[in-house]
Amino acid sequence: MRAVVGAKDGQITALTASLEAALAALEGERELRRQLELRVAELERRLSMDSTDSGTPSSKERIGAKEARKARQQSEPTAARAAGCPSCSL
Known about the structure:
This protein is mainly α and 90 residues long. The protein is built from 3 helices and no strands. The chain has helices spanning 2-47, 65-75, 79-83. The longest helix is centred in the N-terminal third of the chain and has 46 residues, at 2-47. The termini are far apart.
């Protein structure tokens, strides 16, 4: 009987150590995921910037960005045009 109890104690000790190692690895993975999520958010924020909101002078902006921004703004209807204001449709 003592041999069985001793063997079970050994198994419990081994399983406990394995569980603690797995939990430590999981915590490391959680921290890595948090860091990657922050990096993705920062990259998405930087990707959405242009010279009007980035602090970069327009002379440093890529060629064609200003024209693309103007085209985007012209294609988006203003609130007045969307509401059907006849005097606002130019």
